[in-house]
Structure formats: C-alpha cells, structure tokens
Amino acid sequence: MRSWRGYKVALLKLLHLGDTPGRTAAAFAIGIFWGMSPVSPPFLGLQTGMALAFALVFRLNKLATVVGTLVSNPFTFVQIYTFGTYIGSLVLGYDIHINASAIRHFSIDEVFGDLSEFLRAFFVGNFISATAVSVTSYFVFKWFIARYRRLRDARRARLKLDSE
Q1: How far apart are the C-alpha atoms of 11 and 24, rounded to whole Å?
Q2: Cα–Cα distance between 127 and 91 in angstroms, integer?
Q3: CA gyration radius for the chain?
Q4: Does residue 37 sit in helix, strand or coil?
Q5: Where does residue 83 rank: exposed (0-12), middle (13-18), buried (19+ CB within 10 A)?
Q6: Is-contact 87 125, C-beta < 8 A?
Q7: Helices (H), the chain
Q8: CA dihedral 110, 112, 114, 116 (to 10 degrees)
Q9: What phi and psi, each to the nearest 5 degrees, are found at residue 120?
Q10: How many CB atoms lie within 10 A of CB 39?
Q11: Hey, which of 13, 76, 104, 145 would disulfide with 21, CB 3.0 to 4.6 Å?
Q12: Cβ proximity of 71 and 96 under 8 Å
C-alpha cells in the first residue's frame, strides 16, 4: 500500500514534467479514457498497454498516461462500470435489473436477464462515461497544472527578490 507521501511525490512529478500543461493534461486524459474504457476492464490488464500505445503514437508523456489509467483499480472499477452500465441503459432505453438472489446459483441468464441488452448497455454507457470524464479531466488538469506553475514561478521570483 502506498503512503500519502508517495502519492504526493507522484503528483509533484506530474506537475514538474517538461511538457506544456496541455500535453501533460492530454496524456492524463488518455490514461483516464483507457482506464475507464469498456474495451479494457482492469481485470484483463489491457488498460496500461492500450494507454501506453496511444502515448507512443501521439508522443505524449508515458508517466502521465499510466497515472491516468489508475483511476480504475480494484477499489473503483465496480462503481465505474456500474455507473457506466446505468448510463447505457438510460441512453438505450433498457430496463436492466440484476437479480441478486440468482447470484448464488451462478446462472448468467437469471442474474442479468437478457445478456445482449446488458452487454450493449455496458459498452455504450462506459464508452460515454469514459469519454465525458476524460474530456472533463483534460480541461481541469490543464488548468490545475498551469495555475500550479504560475504560482510556483511567482514564488520563485519573490524568493529571488528577497535574497537580493
């Protein structure tokens, strides 16, 4: 388990990358997209590989891309994919119910009902949520990095004036 200090160090590394705020934010957003993508759920282990492939193709920072994929992890992927499936069922007009009592029998048909509707809702909804969250994270992270760097530069300039 990582300590809070470890997370702070990782965040500071992202903030101090040599790329522009836009490129760092784009790398992070691509990582988030692949982290939430229905094509590569975390239990298949394809998230990082797909994100790194895109980072190589677009020549983006690989560290920021990998950190973005960490949005989906064993503690969050159930919530992410449940929310995405719910969004997909709303968009497609499906009434999807999961029969929790049938889980004990391990019958896919009894648990999910019409599996084809469930899978369509899963893929459509998670694609929509991954796209929305990654686009939003691009703008938020770009603003955050630019603001952090402006404040850091102002602090350095102030310290330089104080020392003279």
Answers
A1: 12
A2: 12
A3: 20
A4: coil
A5: middle
A6: yes
A7: 4-15, 21-36, 47-58, 62-69, 77-92, 108-112, 115-163
A8: -140
A9: -60, -45
A10: 13
A11: 145
A12: no
* pLDDT, tens digit (0-9, with 9 covering 90-100), for 67-93: 888 888 778 888 888 889 889 989 998
Q: Are 37 and 126 in contact (CB under 8 A)?
A: yes
Locate 12 and state its tokens: 């500071």
User: Coil, strand or helix: which one is 56?
Assistant: helix
**Measured distance between the N- and C-terminal CA atoms of the chain, rounded to whole angstroms:** 44
The pair of structure tokens assigned to 20 is 């522009």
**Torsion over CA: 141, 144, 146, 152 (sign):** negative
Asked if 51 and 35 touch (Cβ cutoff 8 Å), the reply is yes
Residue among 36, 21, 23 nearest 68 (CA)? 36
Question: Does the pLDDT at position 1 exceed 70?
Answer: no
Output the six-digit token pair for 135: 């686009």
pTM of the full structure: 0.78
Tokens of 22: 């836009």
The answer for residues whose C-beta is within 8 angstroms of residue 117's C-beta and 6 or more apart is 92, 94, 96
Q: Which amino acid, 128?
A: I
138-154 tens-digit pLDDT: 999 999 989 988 998 88
- Most distant CA pair in the chain, distance: 76
